[in-house]
Every structure is written in C-alpha cells, then in structure tokens.
Amino acid sequence: MTTISGDLAVLVDFSRQFLSGGKRFRAQFAYLGWQSVTASPGPPAAGAPAGVQGETAGIVSVASALEVFHAAALVHDDIIDNSDTRRGAPSAHRRFESLHGAEGWAGSPGDFGRASAILLGDLLLGWSDELLDEGLDDAPDRVSARRARREFNLMRTEVTAGQYLDILEERAWLTQPEAELLDRAVRVIIFKSAKYSVQAPLVIGAALAGATDDQLDTLRAFGLPLGIAYQLRDDLLGVFGDAAVTGKPSGDDLREGKRTVLIALARERLDTSSLHTVDRLLGRPDLTPDQILSLQQIIVDSGAVDRVETLIQQNVGQALEALTGSDVAAGVAAELTDFAGTVTRRVF
C-alpha cells in the first residue's frame, strides 16, 4: 500500500497494532475443525491427496482470514457502539481521531476518525477474503474448497444480520411485547456470536479438510451450544468484568444499552420500581460509577446472574455431549473439551 502513497502507512500500522491482541479463539477453532478430520481414524476423505495430514498451509491461511475478518468486525462494531477502547487500547476510530488532532488537520477529528476507521474495516474485510482464497487453493479438492467458501460466506452474512439485530434490540425493545424480549435476545446471541465465534470456524476448518456430512453435523452440534455459552459469559463480563481483564470499561454494556439475555432474565423478576430504574438508566453513556453499581446490584438481586450461570453450564454440557460417541479423534476431542472450559471460564 505504501507504494501508492506514504500517507497510507498509517493504515498498515494501525492494522498491525489492531491485530496484535486477542485470544485467537476463532483461528484455534478453525484449526481444531481441520484437525478433527485430518487426525480422525480411517481413510482420508475422498479426493484427499496422500500426506494431507502434513499439509498445514491452507488451514493457516484460512484461520488467519478468520482473525482478519474478526478485526474488521471489531473496527466497525466499535464505531457502532461509540467505544473508546478495544483490548485495553484505543479503538480504531479513536486512533485516527488522535492522529487528526496531533497533526492539526482541518475539520472535525471525530468525523475523520469515524470515516477512516470505516475504510480500515473495509480494507481488513478485503484482506480476509484474499487470505481465504489462498487457503482454499490448498484444499484437498475443489468440492472441499467450495464447501469451505460457502460456510465462510454464510458466516459473514449471519454475523452481519446478527449485528443489525443487536443494534435493533437496543432501540426497538420499547415497542416489543415483554414476553418476546428473551427470545429476541437469544436470537442475537446465536447469529451475532455463537455461530460466528465457535461453530462457523470449526465447520470452515473441517470443510477445508474434506469433512463428511456426519463430521460437520458433529461439529455444528458441539459449536452452537458452546458459542451460546461463550457469549453468555461475555455478557456477564460486559456488566461485571474487570477492565484490566476484559480491556473494556467495567459496565460498558450498561452504558451501551445492550439488551442481552442477562437483562431479559432480570426484567422477568423485577418489581415496578427496579424495572423503572433499569429502563431509565440502561443505555445512558454518562452513567456514573454509583449508577453502574446500582444497576449491577439490581441485576444480581433479580437472580439473573445465577440463571445465566446455569444456562452456561447447561450449554457446555450439551456441547460436550455432542462429542460422546462421535468419530472425532480422541486427542482433538480432548482439546475441544479443554477449550469448552477456557472460553466459558468465570473471570470476575
């Protein structure tokens, strides 16, 4: 890019900085999905060349594509949520805003920051697709490559739909029947996070390796409930998490007005006074520390935290049950089991 103009170096630098953090869960799940096929007992998938078990270049590119796609989604997500930080550092639009201010350029720093971050996110989306194509070139056959591409495309569509449903719920909840709020919150979890964070990476990796329908079904049955559990944990962290651990301010979801399963469950058991307090304060970006503590206590007293913890354990159990008796190699199943604990561990 810098051959076009030296002014573009900042896009490369900010991309590198933004991609340097994170847990790499999606990349790791993609690799485990791939390994669940290549390490499985029995003959290799139809069309797989000899020695396919030793060929890792394709899955490395595909796993990298997922991480770059995720970085793009975070850049755009932070703009939508007007977030100041990501992973303990300034979000992309705030980085560009600071650059504008430091250089003394004309116009609004905020406008420049948002516009530049949108373009950075778009650039990362393009790069993720290029990386995916590199990985698909190393698929065992064209059928596997096309299947992996379809799964990637489906993931991209579903997470975008889930993102829209998320911002819709922050604004449309007031006009929706109270009895539907929980189901609507679960729908957001499934499409914005559960499929995207766990299920899709597993299936994409396995499809690349030439998985059978049964193998893909097993990974879907494992990935969806684990993804739900993962997001339920993340929702708790968004309200109660330690900023030093999460990289986001404590109570950030309360300021953003996220209408999560946690909030929907709390609403079911609140008295009129507490419900009024929640509806008055939730979504205010200027919430004071005392107001955040008040909302946190209301949520705890409602029993919603305990109910979410129960849902997490139930979904983890359902995920692990999907591995029982499956043809996923024992070593890979053990790693998936370990990951089930890692991505849902309580850290607050």
Report a brief summary of the structure.
With 348 residues, the protein is an all-alpha fold. Helix content is 72%, strand content 1%.
Give a written overview of the molecule.
This protein has one domain: Farnesyl Diphosphate Synthase (Orthogonal Bundle), CATH 1.10.600.10. It is built from 15 helices and two strands. The chain has helices at residues 9-19, 25-38, 57-81, 92-103, 109-136, 142-172, 181-208, 213-240, 243-246, 252-256, 261-268, 272-281, 289-301, 304-323, 330-342, and strands at residues 85-86, 89-90. The protein has a two-stranded antiparallel sheet. α3 (57-81) runs antiparallel to α5. The two termini are 42 Å apart.
Characteristic terms for this protein:
348 residues, mainly alpha, Farnesyl Diphosphate Synthase, two-stranded antiparallel ribbon
- DSSP strand tally: 2
Shape: flat
Query: Can you list the strand order of the major beta sheet?
Result: 1-2
- Strand residues, percent: under 5%
**CATH superfamily, please?**
Farnesyl Diphosphate Synthase
Contiguous low-pLDDT stretches (5 residues minimum) are 41-54
Mean pLDDT: 91
